[in-house]
Records
---
Amino acid sequence: MLAKRIIPCLDIKDGQTVKGVNFVGIKSVGDPVELGAKYAAEGADELCFLDITATHEGRKTFAELVRKISRYINIPFTVGGGISEVSDADVLLNAGADKCSINSSAVRNPELISQMAKSFGSQFVVCAIDAREENGKWVVTVNGGRIPTDKELFSWAKEAEDRGAGEILFTSMNHDGTKQGFANEALAKLGDMLKIPIIASGGAGSIDHFVDTFTHGKADAGLAASIFHYGEIPIPLLKKELHKKGIVVRL
């Protein structure tokens, strides 16, 4: 059985790690390279860096940051934010990123998934999906969960897999920042439907939430931000407790 992965997520704005609740109330929580190195030393399996700076200048700064991260950090890391064409991904992969995550740009142009998979291989392509449950239906959203689309979570995830995505990173906008647990029913359905790994995101607040998402939610990885940034759940403790519960993790 493959080990379940723990993935701290770092949202980057103007070169700093920031955090908000439901994508609002943004505040700085530290230097991304230092934080990333700390998490790697503590036993994180991977890292995810998301650039939330929308400007072209911000993109150049992010590529420079990715180069720095690749020099100092010895575990795989995914980068995302503002990747709207193959050349954007090429810059970040050449800067040292292990995988690229695409979200709103893939919803607007699904062919981008196919193009990236063809150019770099499926293992480099993470399709991130932000969805909100409304009246029993999971509606895919863009622009950090603010704008609903006509796509539905499960059919869109299947299309992403068919187009060559190597992983799905599913964030429940209903759960994001609430610390009330992951959207395990939806995650389990995705896990049953798809052959590619599913990363659970949105709602982590306790060790039990990770236990639940790896068992009931059938997730392959658990991603979180503030609980790690604010030291609420140390990664070594999390992994030790998961191991005690019989969940396979890399210690």
---
Amino acid sequence: MPKQTVTARFANSALIGDIKEIFFNEIQLDEIVARLGRQISKDFEGKNLLMVSVLKGSVVFMADLMRHITIPCRIDFISSSIYKNKTMAQPRPDIRDILQFDDISMFDILVVEDILDTGRTLQGLSEYLLDKGAKSVTICTLLDKPERRDPSTTIKPTYIGAQVANEFVVGYGLDFDEKYRNLPFIGILKPEVYKD
């Protein structure tokens, strides 16, 4: 990978050796997030917006996204995953409710996710928040991987940063084995890193 494509502070990082290629650099990510922020600000004008970050992957994305939103908003966090270990998925998501707000009936919730692949996590989470009484639930995902969608799900994100092919991507909050989240770009992980 050419060194000039990597932020100077990461040019000599051991993490870089595991990256096959950079998918989105910092400038491209900033443009994507700014575009989403403008659209969300317009669409949620006059609504009681609560942005809910799905931990841990979307924290970096949400931190940047909320700084591009120009209307009043609140933030909260929830933990939800279909993965029992590094790569093994289970049928239904495990939701750990850590929301600060007990009563969410007053909020139009924007679920902020790092990547939408099978759709099972976001479908389960959306149903859970609606069952808890949310006024509405809308999905914003940084990346959408439609090739991986489970046909049994009906989840349709309103806001998509970019569609990606079925590659194992890391960085900008996305991880493998809890590593690579701190990379300031999104890169494709070399297969030998995640394959047994």
